[in-house]
# Entry
Amino acid sequence: ATVGSLGTFWATVALVELMDMAFSIDNVFAAVAFTPNIILVCIGVFIGILAMRFIAQWFVKLMEKYPFLETAAFIVIGILGIKLVLSLYEHFYPESAVSQFLSSHTADITISVLTVSIFFIPILTSLLFNFPKVNKES
# Structure
C-alpha cells in the first residue's frame, strides 16, 4: 500500500520526523520561557532532541506506569505559557513592580521548583500511598 507517492515506510519516517520537529519547536518555547540566553536555549533543544531519540521508550513505560504524568506535563506547559505571556508584559512595562519580580532570580527559582514539584510530588505520593493509582502491569 502507498500513501500518495510514498510507501508506508517512508510515510511513517516522514511522520516521525514531523513529530520530532514539532517537539523541537515545543522545546524552544519551553526553553525561552526559562531563559532568554540563546546558548542555553540551543543546548536545551539539543538535549531535548537527544532525549527524544534515546530514552523515548523509557518515557513511554513511565507514562504507562504513571498515567497522571500526562496531565502534569500539560499543567507545566500551561505554566510556562503563562510565564511567556507575562514576559510580554515585562517587555512593555519594565519598570513596574510585577516586571521587577518576573525578571528576578526569585521568580525563576519559584517557577523551576513549581514545575519540578508538579512532576515529582504525584510520583512520590503514588509510590508512598498509591495515590494517584499506579498501573501495576507496567
Observations:
- The mean pLDDT is 83.
- The radius of gyration is 19 Å.
